[in-house]
Specification:
Length: 171
């Protein structure tokens, strides 16, 4: 059995954001007074066609929670250059809660207007996702993003092995 590993120079980072924005973080504005960063995105036909249009709940396109999680992490990496370059990028999203679905207009069916949303990153690392659809701003999700030292995290692999051993010895 042969395996192939890409040379290190060709390995892509999960969040290669140092030089470009995440696909869903299309526009960025730093507010100097409030010291927050506001990312704006439109869920255009390309995003709808590639992956979003089939995420339907009761005949309505809903942005998945996993996409909002990734969006929040990508926003933090975009704003924090030290974190983005860190070899051990253990991002921690604490207290993440989805308070309202991020509803998405189908551009083809709904008069050609793309859905818009904001991902707002506060200076204290609080991140919020707001839907800007249907002439109102709705808070969809909120959490706090931080970089965590890997040495302070549990060793999940060892715990799993210990659990497996205990399960075989306990009856």
């Amino acid at each position: 059995l042969a395996t192939y590993a890409k040379p290190a120079a060709h390995v892509a980072s999960r969040y290669p954001l140092q030089n470009r924005l995440h696909r869903m973080l299309q526009q960025v504005e730093r507010e100097s007074f409030s010291k927050r960063t506001v990312f704006t995105s439109r869920l255009h036909t390309g995003i709808l066609d590639e992956w979003l249009r089939d995420h339907m709940v009761y005949d309505e396109i809903i942005c998945p929670g996993a996409a909002m999680l990734e969006l929040c992490l990508a926003a933090k990496l975009q704003v924090d250059p030290v974190m983005a370059r860190s070899e051990s990028r253990n991002l921690h999203l604490q207290g993440f809660a989805i308070s309202s679905p991020l509803r998405v207009r189908d551009i083809v069916k709904d008069s050609g207007l793309a859905s818009a949303f904001n991902c707002i990153l506060e200076e204290d690392s609080t991140v919020e996702v707001y839907s800007k659809n249907f002439d109102e701003d709705t808070l969809c999700a909120r959490g706090e993003v931080s970089l965590v030292d890997p040495s302070t995290q549990p060793d999940w692999l060892s715990m799993e092995k210990n659990l497996a051993h205990l399960e075989t010895t306990c009856t």
